[in-house]
Automatic annotation (TrEMBL):
Organism ancestry: Bacteria, Pseudomonadati, Balneolota, Balneolia, Balneolales
Coiled coil: none
The MIP18 family-like domain, residue ranges: 9-78
Pfam families for the chain: FeS_assembly_P
Record InterPro entries: Fe-S_Maturation_MIP18 (IPR052339), FSCA_dom_sf (IPR034904), MIP18-like (IPR002744)
Identification of the protein by name: Metal-sulfur cluster biosynthetic enzyme
Amino acid sequence: MDSTPIERREIVRRLRDVIDPELGVNIVDLGLVYNILFGDGKVLVEYTVTTPGCPMRRYLQQQIEAAVDSIDGTAEVSTKVVWEPEWSVDMIKEEVTFFAHPPPMQD
């Protein structure tokens, strides 16, 4: 395993590749990522979803885990959905263009 130290900047860059399929915007710019804790090859991403009943919750978890796991030096990735503070549209970056990325194709 590569012993390269993990950097917050790289984690955030990879999380920007995780697109909310309902809004077509990455989860960082949507304000869904609340905290990133890391050290000794372990990464914990605390995030939320737009609504408590969001049907994309599991999908986003899988995408977050895959994105972070692809970083050299990552030994363990975990995620935690948090509900405080409650997400609102005010958390979206001002310059966001919705559906900058098309939603994934359904099989």
